[in-house]
Amino acid sequence: MYRKAIIVLLVVLLAGCWDERLYKNSSVVSLAGIEGTMGEYKGYYAYPKTLDKQSQIMLIEAEGISPRDVRNNADLKVEQTLDLSELATLLISIDTVKEPLYDLLDIYFRDPQNPISIKVAVTEGSVKPFIELTKEVTDNAGGYYERFIESTEKNTIYPKLNLQMIGSTLFDNAKDIAIPYIKMDEEEHSAEAAGVALFSGQVFTGKILDPKQSFYMLLLMDKANQHARIQYMLKLNNEDVPVTGEVIHLKRKWIINEEMKKITMDFKIDVEIEEFSKNHLYKEETFKTIEEMFQQKIQADFEEVIKILQEQESDTLGIGRYIRAYHPKFFEEDWREQFASLTIEPKVKVTIIRTGILR
Amino acid sequence: MNKVELMMKSLQKAFNQSSDFTVRQVDWREGTSAILCFYSSLVDAKEAQKLLDTIYARLDTNKPFWSETIMTTLKAFSLPQAIEHICNGETLIIIPDTGEMLSLTIVNRVHRNPDEPNNEHVLRGSHEGLVESVETNLALLRKRIHNPSLVVKSFSIGKETNTKAYYLYIDRVIKAETLAEIEKRIDAINIDYFYSVGQLSDELEDSVWSPFPQLLNTERPDRVVANLVEGKVVLITNISPTALIAPVTFFSFYQSPDDYNGRVLVGSFYRIVRLMSFIAAVFLPAFYIAIISFHFEVLPLELSNQVKNDVNEIPYRPLIEALILEIIMELIRESSIRLPQSVGQTIGIVGGLVIGDAIVSAGLVSNLMVIVVALTAISSYVVPSVELNTSIRMLRFPFMVLASLFGFFGIVIGVVVLLIHLINLSSLKQPYFSPIVPFQPKEIYKVFVRGPFFKPTVQVTSFSSPKDDSVKNGDTP
């Protein structure tokens, strides 16, 4: 009995130590980057290090044949254990995503200690300057890009995405993703949100939507975030007047005509005028003119974005999912080709419901 | 040797020639003599003399009830009874001729004023406190309940010490099984020398080894009365100001007279704060240890840098680090109880400033650990009951060990074991974790909120949930 108790106690006491990961013995990586191609990947890991009470960002570089190998090699260069459980952002070079994206992400899903609510972004060229940039602007590398991406999401430039959502869409053949794209502003030496990278299935199509286009893509997706501002230069009485409207409500209706292979998209957009430097906005005439001009311009931009999406066979709007659910006979296995051949016709109706506190 | 002298000898012998035992021969009616005997330490001599004068004045008038006053009784003499009376502090006049004895109940009562107890301060409401004398205590309680249904039953504890004790209840409010149970337990008390209330509560508790007290200790008469009207039994002894109250639930330890003296919203708010403090006091250090050694990914990114900086240079594992501080904390507490008040402030400075600040600069523990331990200490002192306070502070140590071994998983195991224990526990055979087990949805809000005061709550008497509506708690008179 006594002996048994000791054995049980020992087993219990030993079990805990196997799982223990002391915080002080881990290097907590908050920003990771990867570039290169299969067989010769290069990875970057940024973690904070304290010297004389002064925290600074350390950058570890490693090479390897696979993402896991890169991480193992990076671990060799760190005095403590490399720990990715507090990772906030993952940066991927634009050249790397021309190969299937999931190859890079697999290790993040396989290990339960990796967070999957992190942000993912694609960078122009190598990721190294982007990571090195954080040394100057912040003491929290991953947090910088996390905030950067989140604030851009709020302005309806980037779609609301995290690693988990990307992972689940990658294997859906009826929907594609668009991943935030960051480029370097060489003059000011800072990162800049430069639209989204369009994916067709697992691979990057090579086409990047600029911020304006990606904004209209998000409107098409009915994913207007906290701020969704439409801005145009309108010609009123032979005068160029900049007008800004904020999207308040957006109603979307898809009408699918199976025989004619045509999708009509009805959009009803309610906007609030946020900028209009001229007077007399309240006049029925001005009102109507602005509404109509908005309508035309938005429709033209919608058509442009849809055209790009169809050219790239990248169904980021999720039309495939809709058709698979409501018109299963119309849905073909090779959805992307079918998507490219569809006639998609957006119809926009704009109503100005508010004019700000000025009339 | 005449009869009187013989008797005096035997009395002296019975009291072992104790110095404070006084035996004197006095003159009695028509040239006879009587024996006056008493414990000089127990008798108020001045008052006794006055009474004796009255008796003397009546003695020769041959009135039939000359001996009867409020404080005197005449009885047939027997030695054992005489000894009992004298031990109770009465003055005895033994009349050998008639074989009678006259007892004068004038006891020199030694007790302090009914000041507010130091360990149960309230902001508003009564500031009276019980004292070390049953009679005064009963007076304080009777003052609050002018009703014959407040029943006081006496018994004595300690075969040798014969200490006076009482149990009180309110007739018709108390449940019959509660009364039967407490009487059974009082009968079963087996103590030779009784000198501490702890002995009594050990004898009366359902599970002595449980960390949770099953009897509520209080020194406040208003708290006693509040519990009496809820159908509880109160035990008071002659040697301690502490009243023991049973049966109680876990949540009654978290209620304070302040809740009811204040207003409804205020009382409810502070009751919730107190219940939260239980969680903080038991789990906070364990939670911190678990995060630092197992699950640091739950820290927000903004905080993680700071925490990492703090923790990096600490030479010990988090458990040792926590134990160092916790033990210092307990030492400060223990020493501040013993120290006289004038020196008490020194401990505050030594403990708070010197140890708190210096221990961090010395690199023994991290800043955050100091915050955690300080917060835990403050939370544990929020409990209005001293017993529960000490048990809570003890409880957090096993949780800390579990957290250092298994992280959150260990804490969960600990919580499960703790809950199983609490659910199983009973106070006077009545559920301790009521109203959660047995589950009473209508009563459960009272745990968190002090509702407007209409009716007192009575604890359910059985572990199985009451089915009939009429048996539910609401039916108190």
From TrEMBL, chain A:
<dbReference type="InterPro" id="IPR008844">
    <property type="entry name" value="Spore_GerAC-like"/>
</dbReference>
<keyword id="KW-0449">Lipoprotein</keyword>
<keyword id="KW-0564">Palmitate</keyword>
<dbReference type="InterPro" id="IPR057336">
    <property type="entry name" value="GerAC_N"/>
</dbReference>
<feature type="domain" description="Spore germination protein N-terminal">
    <location>
        <begin position="20"/>
        <end position="184"/>
    </location>
</feature>
<dbReference type="Pfam" id="PF25198">
    <property type="entry name" value="Spore_GerAC_N"/>
</dbReference>
<dbReference type="GO" id="GO:0009847">
    <property type="term" value="P:spore germination"/>
</dbReference>
<dbReference type="InterPro" id="IPR038501">
    <property type="entry name" value="Spore_GerAC_C_sf"/>
</dbReference>
<dbReference type="InterPro" id="IPR046953">
    <property type="entry name" value="Spore_GerAC-like_C"/>
</dbReference>
<keyword id="KW-0732">Signal</keyword>
<comment type="similarity">
    <text>Belongs to the GerABKC lipoprotein family.</text>
</comment>
<feature type="domain" description="Spore germination GerAC-like C-terminal">
    <location>
        <begin position="195"/>
        <end position="356"/>
    </location>
</feature>
<keyword id="KW-0472">Membrane</keyword>
<protein>
    <submittedName>
        <fullName>Ger(X)C family spore germination protein</fullName>
    </submittedName>
</protein>
<dbReference type="GO" id="GO:0016020">
    <property type="term" value="C:membrane"/>
</dbReference>
<dbReference type="Pfam" id="PF05504">
    <property type="entry name" value="Spore_GerAC"/>
</dbReference>
<keyword id="KW-0309">Germination</keyword>
TrEMBL record, chain B:
<feature type="transmembrane region" description="Helical">
    <location>
        <begin position="272"/>
        <end position="294"/>
    </location>
</feature>
<feature type="transmembrane region" description="Helical">
    <location>
        <begin position="353"/>
        <end position="379"/>
    </location>
</feature>
<keyword id="KW-1133">Transmembrane helix</keyword>
<dbReference type="InterPro" id="IPR004995">
    <property type="entry name" value="Spore_Ger"/>
</dbReference>
<keyword id="KW-0472">Membrane</keyword>
<dbReference type="InterPro" id="IPR050768">
    <property type="entry name" value="UPF0353/GerABKA_families"/>
</dbReference>
<feature type="transmembrane region" description="Helical">
    <location>
        <begin position="399"/>
        <end position="423"/>
    </location>
</feature>
<keyword id="KW-0812">Transmembrane</keyword>
<protein>
    <submittedName>
        <fullName>Spore germination protein</fullName>
    </submittedName>
</protein>
<dbReference type="GO" id="GO:0009847">
    <property type="term" value="P:spore germination"/>
</dbReference>
<dbReference type="Pfam" id="PF03323">
    <property type="entry name" value="GerA"/>
</dbReference>
<comment type="similarity">
    <text>Belongs to the GerABKA family.</text>
</comment>
<dbReference type="GO" id="GO:0005886">
    <property type="term" value="C:plasma membrane"/>
</dbReference>
